[in-house]
Each structure stands twice: as C-alpha cells, then as structure tokens.
C-alpha cells in the first residue's frame, strides 16, 4: 500500500501561541468561485441560493482575474513567504475556467511553499488533470461523497459515473509528478462497513487517505447522529470546548469579489478590507483585524453573531493552534 491513513490537513504545525503576532499570515484561502455543482446534504449549498443569501449573505460568484492578480502582487509584500495558498472555499474550484492559470501565476510568483486545491473531483477529466499538473499544483485534496453512483445521487444530488470518476483520479495519480494526492470522505457518506472498502480503493492511487467525522459546520443545515452534541474535531479528537478561534491569527480568506475576512468560513464575521481597494499587507496589519483578534483573546467570540454559530475552533483547529490558555499573555503582546 502506497497511501498513508492520515488526516489530509497540514500536519507540520507551529505552536501558534509562541508565534503570535505574525508579521505575515501562514495561509491565504483564495476562493476562485463560490459556485458548486453539488448540493451535499451536510453543506450550506443544500439550502439553495436564495436561502444561502438570506442565511449567510452569500452569493455565487467567480473571481475575476484582475482581482486574483491583485492578490498575487500584494502577497509579495509580506515579509515572509506564505506556507500555503489554497485555491478553494465554499464552491468547486474547477468551475472557474481560469483555475490552472491561477495556479501557474501563484507558482511563478513563488509566494507560497505550496499551492493546493480542495475539489470534489467530479470535473477532473484527463485534460484538466494534465493542465493542473503542468501548472505546478503541489497538493490536490479530493473530497468524496460516497463509494457508488447511487450514494452520490443520495448525498449531493449529482449524477456521477463512479467508475469513470475513479479512473480519472487514477490517471491523475499516475501522472502527478511531484503533486500530492490526498483523498477523504465524511463518515456519513459511507454505508455501514465501507471503511475498509474506502481504504482499499485508494491504497494505491493516493498519497494520503482519511475518513473524517461530520460536524455541524453550517448553521441552518439539519445535522443528526454523530455530529450532534459532541465536542470533537472532524478527525475524531475529543477536546474541551474552545473559547478562542485561532484562525484569525494565522490566515486570511478572500472571497471572489475581493472581500477579505480573518478566516475561511462562509459567515464573514467581519470584512477587514478588500484587495481591490487596499493591500493585503495593510489589511493584515490593520486596526480592524487587531480589534477582532483582541475580541477573540478576550473570550468574547460569541458576541459576534457570525462567530457564535461557527464551529471552526472545535472542528478544524488543531492542538498546536489552541490559544485559550495563552490568552492573557497574548493580550499583553497585542494591546
């Protein structure tokens, strides 16, 4: 077996409490699109566009190239190189026809240690695979929604030829050059007893594979079973509830219209700038972001109505990211 059974997130992590405040973000989440061809039952897209607008003030858009080019130019102004630029977020990145060009620009600009995408891979044809690989993509993270065409229809309302889908992933893996292929599936998308089938299927066509546990990520979406009432992350690690969200201390999220938020959630808890009106360097060093960080460290996160319904601190944060015990010390550093 070539593949490892490990979470598909970044595993080489700095202890965040020792590094804050950062003079440069570790990560930029750039959203090439907020369109998606799936309506997965545990995702906000299952609500439909009208309800997403009402619930999240969310609009489906593609990022224009001039906005993306602003991001690439501005990212060079940070004192340190980014650890990662992830071209993903609240949509299917392959629905933006400029995605390969975006990857190529980021690689040529040398602004990050790695460039990655997170995709459902339903649009991953052989031609697209070749273009992504030739553009220099470092990591592709593939999210599965089941192990059969019938399950895909049930989970996300999408007609998928599962055998062709696997053949396309196999083609990518065999031609990937230096690109890492990570594959994951949510536990709720598997039938009872399918864990071993998943691991067997991807043992020789991925570098890393993992079954994640579904958590209540989207306010307004109905979650049942294991997602309810458990304080644990999607990797199954149970922990005490976290009062501070660490995301605003090491990342920025950029929506297709250029709006910048201090995380990568759908909620936009605060818009701290726009890359078409200001620079990422100024936004990262802005009083607006600093005030948001101070609010987090003061353990007032639930006073922000968007943060109050977000499970990110408990779902996607890692032990190395936790800031709760260091809050008083960090407040003295930041204030």
Description:
Its cofactor is [4Fe-4S] cluster. InterPro entries: 4Fe4S-binding_SPASM_dom, AdoMet-like_SPASM_containing, Aldolase_TIM, Radical_SAM_PqqE_MftC-like, rSAM, rSAM_sf. Keywords: 4Fe-4S, Iron, Iron-sulfur, Metal-binding, S-adenosyl-L-methionine. The model has no long low-confidence stretch (mean pLDDT 94). This protein is of the alpha/beta class. It has helices at residues 16-19, 49-56, 65-75, 99-109, 126-135, 149-156, 162-174, 195-201, 280-284, 287-297, 305-308, 312-315, 327-334; strands at 4-5, 27-30, 82-87, 112-119, 139-144, 180-186, 208-212, 251-254, 259-261, 273-274. Helix 4 runs parallel beside helix 5 (126-135). It has a 10-stranded mixed sheet. The protein contains 13 helices and 10 strands. It is globular and about 55 Å long. It has one domain (26-334): Alpha-Beta Barrel (TIM Barrel), CATH 3.20.20.70. It starts with a strand and ends with a helix.
